[in-house]
Amino acid sequence: MGDTKWLNDDEMALWQAFLTAGALLDRRIEEQLKAESGLSHVQYEVLVRLSAAADGELRMSELAADVLTTKSGLTYQITQMEKAGLVRRRSCADDVRGVYAVLTDKGRARLEGAAPGHLRVVRANLIDVLSDSQVRVMKEGLEEVVRELGGA
Amino acid sequence: MGDTKWLNDDEMALWQAFLTAGALLDRRIEEQLKAESGLSHVQYEVLVRLSAAADGELRMSELAADVLTTKSGLTYQITQMEKAGLVRRRSCADDVRGVYAVLTDKGRARLEGAAPGHLRVVRANLIDVLSDSQVRVMKEGLEEVVRELGGA
DNA sequence: ACTCGATGGTTCGAATTTGAACAACAGGCG
DNA sequence: CGCCTGTTGTTCAAATTCGAACCATCGAGT
């Protein structure tokens, strides 16, 4: 035992491409979003989740899980967004500890303004670069990876 | 003009899975690496690049590009790694501005110690979750994305 | 009602990342 | 040679992230 099974060429190339694509794409998204809407990617995701939720509000913990950030990370971001008026905190009725993050009108407007530009970047650099069948296969594969990582 | 072409279900799912897989996988890698070898993922990548390079050394700028980080980000990390004795700085003969990051024996040893564990995580959560054909398709697709993003 | 092991959010300090500004130099070209 | 533009790597402050510690509360089980 203890002998390591290395990656073959395709596997290595996949891993490398996965890292590179992720990093470069994130960079581009971040800069586009910041320039065009003054939002960070995390903040954009927060707005997306909230706007998709019933009444435009979610518990901090659920939001943190959705946005793939840590609890403290979300606390920080929500504080920032609250200062910017994009979001508001509301304490939970049935659980004194609980806190809801609530989307404000301003927040919703900001999201609507940012979405098209963001989408353009995602399309231009990821979706439209792939064929329909590539999209399907990669979706299947990555969903399996997510499942494995317990992010189901 | 101005009307936005949204994503269909598969495209949306792919984008979501891509983000989630990336974030979760990075998290797991980071924690495994830190726990088992006291390295961050960036530092690990630095060691990998240096060990792959001739004489185990690379110019700062090239290394920064390889590792997908900014110039200042690399300066910081190399300083940390230098303190830890994993790396050493050497100034460039033919270009007074230039600086080489050089892998030390200790650095190489640390990499060798860390690699098997790191590889296990990559395998368990990405590679081994996919079929050979999925690996090939995803590799092709992601390489195309990287090309599009100018990371050729 | 009471205890005890989870849960929800925040707080804190340390580590890291970012981007702009900077200084020093390289390299081509008139 | 002298000028001009682009590089190289570092520095600095500000923004963000991380993780552990913390407090208050919940909820199941007794």
From TrEMBL, chains A, B:
The record, for InterPro entries, names:
HTH_MarR-typ (IPR000835), MarR/SlyA-like (IPR039422), WH-like_DNA-bd_sf (IPR036388), WH_DNA-bd_sf (IPR036390)
Instruction: Name all HTH marR-type domain ranges.
Output: 11-147
Q: Name one Pfam family in it.
A: MarR
The record's section on PANTHER family has: MARR FAMILY REGULATORY PROTEIN, TRANSCRIPTIONAL REGULATOR, MARR FAMILY
What protein is this chain from?
MarR family transcriptional regulator
